[in-house]
Structure formats: structure tokens, C-alpha cells
Amino acid sequence: MTNFEIGLLSFPALLLLIFLRVPIGLTMFTTGFVGLWLTNGSAFMAMARLKTETFTTFSSYSLSIVPMFLLMGCFATLGGMSQALFKAAEAWIGHRKGGIAMAAIGACAGFGAICGSSLATAATMGRVALPELRQYGYAGGFSTATLAAGGTLGILIPPSIVLVIYAILTEQNIAKLFLAAVIPGLLAAAGYVLVISIYVRLNPKAAGVRERVGYGERFRALFNVWPVLLVFMAVVGGIYAGIFTPTEGAAVGALGTGLIAWWNGGLTRQSLVSSFLSTGRSTAMIFFIVLGAGFYNGFLALTQVPQELSNFVVEQGFSPWLVLAIILVLYLIFGCVMDSLSMILLTIPIFFPVISSLDFGMTPEQVAIWFGILVLIVVEVGLITPPVGMNLFIINAMDRGTPITATYRAVMWFVASDIVRVIVLAAFPAITLFLIS
């Protein structure tokens, strides 16, 4: 059996282990280790690579951005920023039909600007917004679907942990990727608000109405979100202005949100230790997945599978747009059974060389950034796609009285919005690349 054949056979082995519910990091590590053993006839190279791969992976300075953004999200929650965002949005649009759901989307977008995790955004905003949605008579499935969809904005609106990993894998500029994600992120939030508006008109009983509040209360609520704006401008504005690197920006953001949480009384010695432990556990999980992916992708590179696949696609003369469409559809399918980070780490080393070899009429850097945003969006769709959308399970766990099937039915409206957005951004790359042109 040739090395190329061993590389191809590793895919069904990998999927089998995933379906057997083996952790994805361990799955990729085991498959890569065994694959290296088989291709070399002994375990010596696999053992040697275990040493070198671990060092080269975790000595990457760029990876230090991950725990900083995770810690920033923890501090932002302790500082009451999520609640301030929701109350401000609710004060301005909560009196409209479906307004509280729209306010939840707006708050998710705002919180996503200081938290790079979709799951953290969904969980945090679920705790804040679900009681309000229940109080004003919003249907259970509609409420949970709205918050699950809103949570996906956490990885699309910069800063984003998934974009950081993509940038490391493809050797792209993190700041440019963050900038390119701004317009698609705003389009996502606008699309979700439009879906809510249509849904409540077709299903009037799905949403209640909140009384209108005066402008005095509205401006007071708006004033309370100044910490969020301050942190966002310090982190994202500082990165774009070249004042500091993305990693330094993440550290500044963590420090800023920590000080705000302490000032608001949310950061105590006990909650500080809890935040460090939570950040450490999440970072360890992400880093182990990164190590497993590095080991598996090193094995694939040895078998020449990505290179041969890229050459095959080029030789067939397929339209670049057809290849892109097939890849995006595969991401939508993978999203039904895998989490976003695992998909990025597993597939980018295979799909990116294919996309890079095709002619889309753009520079290689533009193609890489545009493709990264498209991948991020379809990965985001996977978080709310039944039957294994992670955000759906997180939100439904907070509302035991709502059947998961009700959430599935309502969330498909948001999935449709995401698919339309993917088509628009794929057809018009200038929308994504506008801010970096």
C-alpha cells in the first residue's frame, strides 16, 4: 500500500472515530500517529515528531492570543457588560414587534466585539435575555433559536478565535482578517433582525410587546455601554492603527475588561481564580485540538494527499466557482456533526491549497482572506444546524421547558438567512474586501 493510499484511508478512519464520540483532538492525534507509523514502518519517526511538533506548535507567539481573548470574555461577563448591552438595545427597540429578540441580536453583536467565542456569547446572552423573552410572552422555540443564532456572531465579529487559528494555518495577517470580517458581521446581524421581523409578522403569537420607555431612560441605558465601546476601540482600533500587535491588543483587552469588572464589583478574588481556571481549561482543550491537527496534517503532507488533490482539481479544468461551491457545501454538511474549530483545523490544510491553485481574478492574499471569511460563515452556520448544532444545545439546556424540536423548526429561518449571505458574499468578493482594499 502506497503512502498516498494510506493518507486517503485515514479519512474514513478519522470519521469513524468521530462518530464513536472520541474527542476530536485525540482522534486527529491518534490517526496522525498511526499513519506516520504505517508510512515509515516503525514508530521511531512518529515518536520523534511528537517531540518536535509539540515544541513548534506551542512556541508560536500568535497562539498566545487565544487565552487572552478567552480571559477577556470571562471578565466581560463578570463586569456586567452583556447585561448593559442588552438593556440598552432593549430600551431603544424593545417596544417594537419582536423588539426584544432584535435587542438580543444587537447585544450578541456587541458582546461578540469583546468576546471571540461563539459558545461563550450564546451562553452569556442566554442567561441575560431568556428571562426577558419569557416575561414578555415570546415563544420558547423562537426565543432559543434567536439566542443560538445570535451567539454565532461571537466568532464572526472581530476579535475571533477561529479567525486567529485560520490566520496561523494559512500564514495570513490577523489584523486584515479581523477588518475583513466587520462588514460580513454587520450583515449577519442585520439579516437576523430581518428574519425576526418577518417571523413575528407571519407568527404574531410568537412575540409579545414591551411598553415604550422614555428617552431619558434610553440615553441612561446607552451610557452604560461605554465600557464595551472603550474596550472595543482600545483593542480593535489599536490593532488597526498599528499601535500594538493582535496579541498585545488581546492582552490590553483582558486587562481593560478586568479593571472594569473590578470597578463594577464583579471581580473578586474568588471570581478571578475561577476565571483563570475556566480560561486554562478552555485553552488546554483548544491547544490539544491544535496539536492533534498539527500531527494529522503533518502526516497528510507526508502522504502528499493535499498536493495531489490540488493537482487533480486543476487538471480537471473545473470552474473555480464550482469547486468553491462544493467546498462550502461540504462545510455545511460537516457542521452538522463537528464543532467549528475542529473543522477549521482538519480541513483548511486540505482545501486551502486547492482554492489557492484556482484563478478567481484576485491576488493570493485577497483570495485567502475572502475564503477565510466564507469558511468562517459556513462554520458559523454549523453551530446552529440540526441535529448537532452546539449553540442549540447550550441555549436549550437553559430552557428545559422548550422541546429541542421547536428550536430546530425556528432556527431554520436563521440558517436560511446565513445561506443567502454566503451566496451574496461569494458572488461579490468586493463586499468582504472593501475595508482592506
How is this structure best described in words?
This protein is an all-alpha fold. 78% of the residues lie in helices and 0% in strands. The chain is globular. The protein starts with a helix and ends with a helix. The mean pLDDT is 83.
Summarize the structure.
By secondary structure, the protein is an all-alpha fold.
Task: Report the structural category.
Answer: mainly alpha
Shape: globular
Number of helices: 23
Q: How many DSSP E strands?
A: 0
Termini, distance in Å?
A: 48 Å
Describe the sheet with the most strands: none
**N-to-C SSE series?**
HHHHHHHHHHHHHHHHHHHHHHH
| Overall average residue pLDDT | 83
Strand fraction: under 5%
Give the % helix.
over 70%
Low-confidence spans: none
- Report the C-alpha radius of gyration, rounded: 22 Å
